[in-house]
Structure formats: C-alpha cells, structure tokens
Amino acid sequence: MRIGVVGGGIAGLRSAMLLERAGHQVTVFEARDRVGGRLLTVERGDGWYEGGGEWIDADHHRVLGLMREFGIAPERSSQWPGLVVCKGEFALEDSVWPDAAQDSEAVHLEAVRLIGEVNTGKDPGSDGDLGDFLDRVCQSERGRWWAEATSRSDEGDDTGRIGFRGWLRGYEHYLDREAGDMSLYRIGGGGGRLCALMAQRLADVRTGWEVSGIDPKTGGVDFYDHQPEVFDRVVVALPSLWAEFRVGMVEFTGAQMGRAIKVVLEFDRPWWKEKGWSGRMICDLPVQQTWDIGRGGLHALGCYICGDEAAKLGQDAVGAALESIVKIHPEASRGFLGGAVHDWPNEKGIDGAFPSIRQGEFEKWEQGRQPWEKLHFAGDWACDWIGFIEGALESAERVAAEIGPAPGSRGYRLSAC
Length: 417
What we know:
The chain is of the alpha+beta class. The chain is built from 13 helices and 23 strands.
C-alpha cells in the first residue's frame, strides 16, 4: 500500500521504518525543516544538550533496542539521588523527611490498592484529578508538597490538571521498579541525532510540508504550499492537540499537552561538581527541578518548570531559574554565561511538552487511539507508556501491526521484542 505518515517525530519515523520493512511504500511529511519533533539536540560549542525529550528509564526496552539497532550505546546517568529543598531545609531523594516519606508511602499503597481493584474489574470511582487524590491521602503539608513536586515532574503539569484514571494507569508501570531506575539513561549522541539517522534509512522524508487537513474516508492529505496527495492509509503521528485539529474532529484523543518548559543555564565551569553535587535537585522555588544537562564539553544545568509557574514565566524563565539556584547555591552567580528557554507549550504545532489523559476522559483516550476509516494514530499520547519516548515507539509498533505486511512480503521483526 501507499502510506502517508504525517509527523516526522520519533513515532512517525519508527512507524515509517516498520511499514517499509513490511513492504509498503511510505512517505513521511514533516512541517518543520528538521525531523525529531520534541526530540531536539542543540549544539553548543564543544558540546550539546537535549532541548526536548531526554531521559530513558531502565525498563524502556524499545528505546534501548532502537539504539542497539543503530549501534548507539546509551549514556548512563549518575545523578540520583538528588538534593531536595523545601522551605530552606535540605534532604536527599532517597532519604526525605519522615513526614514526606510517610505520605509518599501512603500514596503508593493507595495507588497499588486501586490498581488491584481495577485489574479485577472493579470501578475505581469518580475520575477526578490527581490533586484531589493527593489531598485525600497526604496528611502533612510537606508530604503534600513532595507528592506534588514528584508528580508534577512526571506529568508535566500541576496535579489539578491531571486526570486521576490516566495517572493510575501510568503508575502501574512503576510497580516493579527499583530506586534509581527512572531517568537512568540518555540517548547516546542525542535524541535529535538518532531521529536524523532514522530519517536517512527511509526512502521518502519530506521536510517543510505542513499539512492543513486529512480526509479519513479517502486518505487525502492537504498541504498549505503543495498539491494534495491521496494514500491507501494515513498514519497521524502528531501531538494530541494537533491530531485533533488536522483531522477535523473535536477532542477525540482524550489527551492534553502539559505546560512544561525547559530552561538551560550555561556556565564557564561545572561548579556543582566542584562542590560534590551532581546537579540534580527538586525544590519549592520557581525553578522546581534541575539536573546536569550538558554533554561533551558543555557545562550547563537544565531546569524544569511546569504548570502555572511555567505559564507565568515563559521566555523570562532564565532569570527566575538562575535566581532560584543562586538562593541555594550562591556560587552559581559566578561564571554564568547565558541561558535558553525551550517553551514547548508555545511552540506551533506542538502546544506542550508531553501529554497526559484529561480528567474524566479516560474512555475517550482509549477509543481515540483506535483506527478510524483509513487513519491510524501514533505518538506518545496514543500508547500505554503515555508521555514517554518509549510510548512513541510502542504506538509505532501498534500501527504497524494494525496495517500489517504487504501481500507477498516477508513481514517484519521488532528488534526490541
């Protein structure tokens, strides 16, 4: 079949690779002048950093398998456990204050109990937001802050905007993990570079082709500056909000994009290493979270700001992030070279950092990733590993299985399985 893939992020590129392998003729359309989407490797002098998706967990076997396929070794992180700062008091991630640890354990046990009920067919109750659940379970002010801080980092937004059923579904992935398994690896050489290598293996990748609409009945794809084309099948590999817009449906995905921005602060030396600190920190200041983001010869801290705070700061976040760090580490003011903001919520065609399932729309999300007429849906919203690079690859495997091999072809084998 002749298949069009709309979106040249890692989900679209992987879908195209698997479908070509299965004997189909595939064309990838990407609106930007580069592939990768929210995987963006930024070159800075003798080094680089990831402006978008970055972390690979220990159980993200699809991503690790894809790296092996391209001969790329994962880069192991050694930043955990990080520093935790709340109201001027200090702790470490693996030994937080007793009240915070107690509430964290209570959240975990209640989530496990509810997951067990769901898996035996019981209704977990009203699909409120995650914040309501944390309010109910946490008993201390500091414990509630700790639950908010860690959940906000995972979900990319304030917990009052995160649907509880979707969060519970995702939390099930964490049950068999050990401490430190999260954010254990990064893609060797950068995620953006990996996507460029993926594109080189494909027969037809067209950058600068912005889609204006898709007809699910005919497989027709319209473009702003090019003639329309018609395909036997179309893979829509766009962020959830843009998938809704381009297909012409209203809120069919049940997913939303999180308000999270990434700030990068560059220094003339790694002063955090000089003081014996890895650079990883979660705190109650506007910066919210930091880590050592520089690779190669780049000395830089990455800063994560989510939710209302991200919406308020926007492009002014560099100063707020540096000021926050200086309050805790005064030496940060010396040797500061400059900063950059990757404001994904205001990036055209993306509108957010990564997705979560909207409150009360869990069933809509489950239905929204199913094939519709000649359309198939891929992306980090259309998967069980929602919001992860692993999920984007998971969705590509599902799409390839839905479409199946071309008649007479030998099919394909998934290297990560």
